[in-house]
Amino acid sequence: MKELEKSKTHILVEIIEYVSNSVVTKTIIHKTTGNISLVAMDAGETLAEKISPFDTFIQIIEGTAEVVIDDQPNILQTGQGIIIPAHTSNMMRANGRFKMISTVIKSGYEGNII
């Protein structure tokens, strides 16, 4: 898993490309305390419903995405973000192509083990 080069400017929307009928992910930073990834989803693709034990921040950097949290749909457009709380069911739908940054924070839960 190769991270982006440090101390260098990056244009995030240009780092990851769309692939027909696919979801593409590229790691920006991967640490034990969390990770940041770029994701490009082609129109019609879905990320299956899941429940994460950690908070996840999603920011749309191109296009429009549907983020469903506990059965509540949220339509996010370029520049908008949302926090998916830990332990909540969530899924994503690409009604059209979009790119996003996904930030997962794994630290801070040490005293809140469920």
Question: Your description of this structure?
Answer:
Helices cover 4% and strands 54% of the residues. It has 1 helix and 8 strands; from the N terminus they run αββββββββ. The longest helix is centred in the first third of the chain and has 4 residues, at 12-15. Strands 1, 2, 3, 4, 5, 6, 7 and 8 form an 8-stranded antiparallel sheet that branches. It has a domain at 33-105: Jelly Rolls. The chain has 114 residues and is mainly beta.
Short structural description:
This protein has a domain of 73 residues: Jelly Rolls (Sandwich), CATH 2.60.120.10.
Measure the end-to-end span: 30 Å
Number of helices: 1
Structural class: mainly beta
Strand fraction equals: over 45%
Order of SSEs = HEEEEEEEE
**CATH homologous superfamily label of one domain:** Jelly Rolls
- Uncertain segments of ≥5 residues (pLDDT<50)? none
Q: Please describe the biggest sheet, giving its number of strands, its sense, and whether it closes into a barrel.
A: 8 strands, antiparallel
Radius of gyration: 14 Å
Per the CATH scheme, the topology name of one domain is Jelly Rolls
The top-level CATH class of one domain is: Mainly Beta
Average pLDDT level: 92
- CATH architect. name of one domain: Sandwich
Helical content (DSSP H or I, runs of 4+): under 10%
Secondary structure: number of strands: 8
Q: Any idea what the shape is?
A: globular
